[in-house]
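> Could you send the Hexosyltransferase prediction when you get a chance?

Sure thing. Input:
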Amino acid sequence: MRLFRRCTRISILSLLAISVFTPVFLLSYRLKNLNSDGMMFYLLLLLLDFWSSRDFVEDLSILKHRVDAQANSAVQQEEVEDLKGPHLVVYRDGDHGSLVSLNENDSLDKAENVNSLQNNGTTYGRDRKNQQNLYEKRVSSSSEKEKSRPKGVQHSRSIQSHPQRPLDEKVKEMKDKVIRAKAYLSFTPPGSNSHFVKEIKLRIKELERAVGGVTKDSRLSRRAMQKMKAMEGTLLRASRIYPDCSAMVNTLRAMTYNAEEQLRSQRDHTSFLVQLAARTTTKGLHCLSMRLTAEYFALQPEERELPNQNKLQDPDLYHFAVFSDNVLACSVVVNSTVSTARDPEKIVFHIVTDSLNLPAMSMWFLMNPPGKATVQIQSVDSFEWLSTKYNEDQQKQKGLDPRYTSVLNHLRFYLPDIFPSVNKIVFLDHDVVVKKDLTRLWRINIKGKANGAVETCVEGEPSFRRMDMFINFTDPSVATRFDSNTCTWAFGMNVFDLHEWRKRNLTARYHKYLDLGSKRPLLKAGSLPIGWMTFYDHTHALDRTWHLLGLGYDSGVTRAQIEQAAVVHYDGVMKPWLDIGIHKYKSYWNKHVSYEHPYLQQCNLHQ
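Output:
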């Protein structure tokens, strides 16, 4: 009996020892990796857990989670050490006064940052002392510059800085505070329901409701401003609870920079794909050209002649010129011009293409004659004088894009040689649609000038161009002959007086500047800048309603502008026959395409 009692007593004592020492062992194992401050903090929590109420413990749980967040942020900082970021200057909240003085060197600072990125590959894990030293140097240098300037200059600069403030500054500030509040909310422990969490959630909800869909400060209500002040108080309290978030800031800044770099790369890739789509021929257009070519060579030689070829040299008719290798685009230009003309039987179209597309172009107009109008199809290779006399000069135009360096693009400068018996001609690009009668252009007096065109020198409009954007005015030969402030004009719909052209020998002038541009960087590739130089002081400004630009790149062109225009131009890369074309403008072009044509159906060319 005595032995049984002794064994029972030993068993009870053993269980009691296990129940006492096991929690101590587990707690010491858990706190083994923490420093002394962290262990004292945990012991404090245990004591407070014994004496405190539930709500007070919930607030302390936030403090506990802050320690965990600091440890986690340190781990995250190690994980993102490979994230690269720009060598930025960290400005603190109270340093807004230095922004004005730093504005004048903004471009220089950006260039330095770019160079540092390329050469050093800076990261966001660098020591903050280096950033602080760099910041102090820049602020001190900027303050010295401000002191060296006269007071009047400093005052004028401070005045000029105010109009640059955006009209939606308060709206942006409110949205920024919501983002900051959500960031602080993400630092709290999951499932926490403390007073602080409830308060910050309420402030976020109230401020989001107050802002709503407002985009301008003038539309903000007084209630919205009150909610923003309440949010400011909550954010101030949050900044006291989380006083040190530098590690998280560096991590987020590095992640933001990498996201911006990925976005920039995607934009460059998208731009490349858009340019590639604009340069290549679509599968449908290639199919159409092949079918038309096969049909053309199946005809007898006498069946390949277009009607009314006796009108080609009549100077009393209305002559139009189009240079293109796009069959469908040329048909739209011809159809839209003929459909709006009062006397279509007096219209003569001269279409010049390359030898590869000559059969397809000829077959299309044999199968689809444009009413009573006359069409002539020529190949650029048939101009023997061009291949022998001007071919070398054509090769001098440098550029990577064949759309701008092709012979068809520069053939417009040889109109007097191509049409020796014509005195007046209207030149149309193949990406235009005619909406009004263009024969009225023959009644306009261009006052002895060789070229009549619509000007593009109105600042603020998408079509705005300056001569110094495309021509190098640092070259003495350019600066002495041209004025950079001279109003520019557009190709696409031009009235040319070939008599004045021949009289002033403008083709020779074109070759002169083309030759100069081949020897030194004088102008950009394309026909537009050299056209400005060739027809300098020889261009008459037409009314702006004759030629509307921008349907190939500007989605802001209004319906009212289109209805007033005589010619709408799809200049840019977003052509109406491409998938990347602006959808709301395609209807003006599709109107003149016979999509029910069997060849278009077979080649999957649809609206």
